[in-house]
């Protein structure tokens, strides 16, 4: 017999958790069933909205160990001296499916990392691909609608996907990756990660460099064909990660950076802030800076993984954004999503709370409580709730101008208005990727494309063939032939 007494949520011991109180053995229930009412009411509220994208995922804790001093590039406290170790929480996900969809969809995989640093949380909210389908955030809702279920049938609709892509050549590079043999990772452990965007570092002297983050899987890459994926259990990737960590087979990634100076960016042939493009490694080689390891599963999936709130705006002194238009859109979108999905005080939930003091003048809101790490009231103490105030001597929080980022110059003769990116070259890098593939990979790519494109109308097919041909004539020819052959 357990010595732990069952209680209701006010802490009072519960006498009976099997029988409701009723008027006689065969009689109706009575109004003093407040414990039953509490139980049913709480049950009704167990769900929060699922993420509008990346709904299906799994997370784990671990550490990032720096292997190279980066103090010449950044003042970020966790990137100063080789050997420094920082706790992380990582969540992997698919993008388009709902919470109960398959782990093995042909879909990019999210690779979101929260670094709990001593100067706040830095979130690298990336994917398993170095580029994305878009380079303007205004297209994001349209793109996602086209990839999700059809509004009438609530079924996947490949024709909608290709209708979007036919109208958006900026997607061609990422779509070529998605349709390639790399489009379905065999597990979350066996895929690379990318910050994808261009972020920035700045150092003590106020010098800024542009930075791209890469994570190379130490487990190697493994992928599935459509046929193999269909045979997998829908929760397989989640189970694989949990089991590996539980048995001490900790997955890890080698962390690398590409670095570009502000001057190099001005003169580089490719727009370094265009998320549809990579920075060729021959021009900007990968520099190894550390190891990321996952070594602890969550105790409670909902409390930790489901309530995890990652945001590209979670930046820290020494790490900043860039003029990348997509990144700018994301700086706004995520915190807004968290307020809707988790609530305004999402940052006081343990998985999201910084492991350093959180001294804000923000107050109140639903579930205002204690900061789980400092043990101080995070939102409702008796301390001053306005700034400036006369209580500096008593420890009231003040801004620290030494952490302000260097001013960012505008990169062109900047006129405020709509600036079309239609004239960008969206074909060369897609063609280069096609030409890196061997014969078997090219055949897989074409078969995967034609599987969906054959369901679209002839106008969509013609525009897609034109895009493939502009990337590489052989790419276009192969898709055309495969469509004709049925
Ligand atoms: C303007 C473009 C984008 C918008 C507006 C956008 C918006 C969102 C939103 C609203 C969520 C759900 C957040 C939540 O409820 O917690 C989300 C999740 C996510 N997004 Fe984006 N997204 C964009 C582009 C991207 C790109 C380019 C990447 C990767 C390079 C990315 C990676 C992720 C990841 C990994 C998650 C899941 C985070 C987690 O595990 O909780 N997104 N996105």
TrEMBL record:
Native organism: Marinomonas phaeophyticola
Keywords: Heme, Hydrogen peroxide, Iron, Metal-binding, Oxidoreductase, Peroxidase
Family indicated by similarity: Belongs to the catalase family.
InterPro entries for the chain: Catalase, Catalase_3, Catalase_AS, Catalase_clade1/3, Catalase_core, Catalase_immune_responsive, Catalase_sf
Cofactor(s) the record lists: heme
Annotated ranges, domain Catalase core: 7-395
Enzyme Commission designation: 1.11.1.6
PANTHER family the UniProt entry points to: CATALASE
CDD domains linked: catalase_clade_3
Pfam family, one: Catalase
Primary enzyme class: oxidoreductase
Protein name: catalase
Positions of transmembrane segments: none
PROSITE patterns hit by this protein: CATALASE_2, CATALASE_3
Annotated spans, Disordered: 1-22
